[in-house]
Amino acid sequence: MSCGEGISHPNILFVVVDDHRADAIGALGHPTVQTPVLDGLVRRGTAFTRATIQGSLMPAVCAPSRACLLTGNGVFRADADPKLDAGPVFEVRLPAEACTLPERLRAAGYETFVTGKWHNDLPALLRSFEGGREIFHGGMCDHTAVPVRDLEEIRGGKPARVGGGFSSEIFCGAAEKFLRERGRERPFFAWVALTSPHDPRTPPAEFRARYDAATIPLPTNFRREHGFDNGELAVRDEQLVPRPLSPDVVRAHLADYYGMISHHDACIGRVLAALRETGQEENTVVVYVSDHGLALGSHGLLGKQNLYEHSVRVPLILVGPGVPAAQRCEALMQPLDLYATLCELAGVSVPAGLDSRSLVTATAGSGGGRESVCSVYRDCQRMVTDGRWKLIAYRVGGAERVQLFDLATDPDECCDLAGEGGHAWRIAGLRAKLQMWQMAAGDRWFEPVQSAIA
To answer: Which domains does the chain have, with CATH numbers?
Structure first.
């Protein structure tokens, strides 16, 4: 597949973080977390409040999610060899024929730069970027002992070294240095991929001290245990603390989590300051997105291996030329739609056949969203929502079950309506949407659910 040629216009600073829940931003209404830098982006740009990932066929949800961002394709097409139970791998290999977003922009004349976590294969990294510093090839690590290499060290096969400092400081420092030292002959695309706020949640003391665990409110949908076997209750993420969940233990984890977010918020602030101080701010599109959310006590869960809103919805903020300021967009969308959106903003054609859809019309308030979105988790969970009504289907141990939520009146998914009378037709309609999407997407691991078991 040829990436083709195009024209180049605005710079693009693409920041992707790990495990950030969609609701954990102060400007979007969170009562506790302190995010002054992200709050500023919300005021300056458009916040997409219904950004929903397509999910994962493996417990490391971040790898396929980032593959979807890079390729503009859904979870079954973004992986060169989608499979279940592939073993303890930490990467998703991108199809060799896939033209990644940085690869497409590079062919259009952009200078492409990468720093931070690379959760995909190295051949895709090397063909996508011409420069890069402080790259961590892996899934998770100690935030104060990050194994990193520059892009040329990877090309030369050199071993990783331990970076100096905390992960977010290392990666944002590399991005800041790039912005201050680069030439201005071409526009840039910079992929800045943080590991924060992924565990181990060990924020620097200054940021941890901002949060008193004893006074932090629990999520509205906090539960001590999940109400049934969802097919993934024994995964690593769910074993980080004893069961049933203790409110005090969850509060302590939330304090650490918020400290991590506040810390990387401050680090991103230094990158944005470099943009401003070097005169590049006005002509730069800034993207902030997470690869998935996290439970942290919601529904009696800790991890992201589920299809509730706290885990499949992500924060997504777009700022810059061509993007309205101080706007909330409630259109249904998927983060993979950023591929087509950024290409349109850059004046670059989109490779044919992608799943990605541009959101430029949606930011202008002219529709442009999806009628429904679906997500998957391994072979045991599937989800579909039309924006108001949401169906989650489970198949565990030969038994089948569905949940139905009215997100308009119950955004925290506390009241399962599947067993109540009068909803059978609604469940059937959502199930039909899910089945149509499964067939189109190539979902081979979850046969259509035929009946609901309460």
So the answer is: 11-370 (3.40.720.10), 379-441 (3.30.1120)
Q: Token pair of 247, please?
A: 């409110």
14 contacts 114 by C-beta, under 8 angstroms: no
> pLDDT tens-digit profile of 322-359?
999 999 999 999 999 999 999 999 999 999 999 999 99
In the chain, the amino acid numbered 123 is: P
Tokens representing residue 418 in the block = 């599947």
- 3-class secondary structure, 389: strand
User: Among residues 294, 296, 276, 292, which one has the least CA distance to residue 284?
Assistant: 276
- 353-381 pLDDT, tens per residue? 999 999 998 887 767 789 999 999 999 99
Query: Cα–Cα distances in Å, from 219 out to 209, 252, 394?
Result: 21, 13, 24
- State the pTM of this model: 0.95
Measure Cα distances from 173 to 122, 146, 165, 177, 355 in Å: 22, 14, 10, 6, 34
- Strands of 327-329's sheet in order across: 131-137, 111-118, 188-193, 11-17, 284-290, 316-319, 46-48, 327-329
